[in-house]
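User: Run a structure prediction on this.
Assistant: Running it now.
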Amino acid sequence: MTSGTTPGLTRFNTSAEGDALAALHEVCTSSAWASKLLAQRPYATVDALFRASDAAMAELTAEDLADAMAGHPPIGRPKEGDPTSSREQSGMAGASADLKAEMLELNLAYQDTFGHVFLICATGKTGEQMRDAIRERIGNSPEREREIVRTELGKINRIRLNRLVETIEEENR
């Protein structure tokens, strides 16, 4: 991950407010989170952007978290035509039909229990690891699970923010 000042960060800092907000909504669909990050521009370093993201995530209400989760499809069913979703869930791409069927059942049970999709930072995880995580977490209290979701969203946001800065840098080349 990038940590200092980069051309991509500079471009993000200086982009029009609407463009920066749209880019942040691609990272996280929480309007509260995006507004907090937008209001703190410019960022001196990518690490400063990450810290601001973490702080904004820590302040999200339950409603804001629901807003953020609305942008995430269930594990095993990435958004059609969305390369980010497919890339992040690549651990399920080669999963057996049995594992995919089990994940569908577990996703539905989780959603019935908590009222939202099972959210995990799936980058680098195998289908089995994600299945084991949902099995473990489905027994959590709603309060405990909300805090785990907050942590997982924070991880996802950092990965996506880093990718945003890298993508912006590549566009300038």
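Residues 3 and 95 are 34 Å apart (CA to CA).
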